[in-house]
Amino acid sequence: MQLTNKTILITGASDGMGKATALECAKAGATVIIHGKTQPKLELLYDKIVDAGYPEPVIYPLDFEKMTPEDCDTLNDVIHKEFGKLDGLFNNAGWLGASTPAQLYDTKLWHRVMQINLNATFMLTKACIPLLNKANASSILFNIDNKNTAYWGAYGVSKAGLRSFMEILSDELESSTINVSGLIPGAVKTSFRTRAFPAEDTSGLTSPDEVAKAAAYLLSDDGKTINGESTHGKIFDLKEVISAL
Length: 245
Prior knowledge:
It is a single chain. The chain is α/β, with parallel strands linked by helices. It is about 45% helix and about 15% strand. The strands form 2 sheets. The protein has a 7-stranded parallel beta sheet, sandwiched between helices. Strands 7-8 form a two-stranded antiparallel ribbon. The longest helix is centred in the middle third of the chain and has 27 residues.
C-alpha cells in the first residue's frame, strides 16, 4: 500500500483513531492535513510526523461545533492553493454527548451532537467534493457506528444519519472517480471511550493502530477493491479489512 504524492484530510486527528490514521498515512507517503480543535495536540502530532521523516503535514484547527459553510469554503481554498486537489477525506471526528434517557436529553446538547457528528461532516464533505474530483482516483471514508445503544440517543441518531449520508453520497457519486466507503471500527481503546465508560475492562478493545491500518488501506488505490470486489458504497467491519491486508 502506497500513498505517495497523495494529500489526505483527516478530521478528529488530535487523538485516538484520527491521530493513528494520520501517522499511518504519512508513513505510507501521504501529505496529511490534520484537523482538530485542539491546536497543541495537533502540533505534537505534527512534530511526531516530521521527526519520523515522513512528508511534512499541514495543521488545520477548526471547531466543528462552531463551523459554518464559509469556514469549509475557506478550507477548500487553502487546500486548492496549496495542493490543487484532494486525494482522500477521512470523516472521523465525532462526539459522544451524554448518556441520558431520551425523555430527559437536553435539547441544546442534542443539537450540539448533531452539529459535530452530522452537520459539520456534511458541510465539510460538500466543500471537499470539488477538490476530490480534481484527483484521478480519490476516496471518502466514513467512521461508522452501527449500534443503537440505549441512553446514547443523540450519538446513535447522528451516526445513523451519517451512515445514510454515506450511502446516499455513494449512489450520487457512482459515476465519478470518488470512491465512498465506511469502516466500523467497533470498540476501540481511546480516551474518547474511556471517558464514556470509565469502569470498562480495556484489555479486549481494539487498538487505534489497527484501525489506522484499515483506514489507510481504504484511502489508498489498493483499497478501491477487496478480494476483487469494489469497495464503493460498502461498509466494512474492521476485521474484514484487516484480513484483506
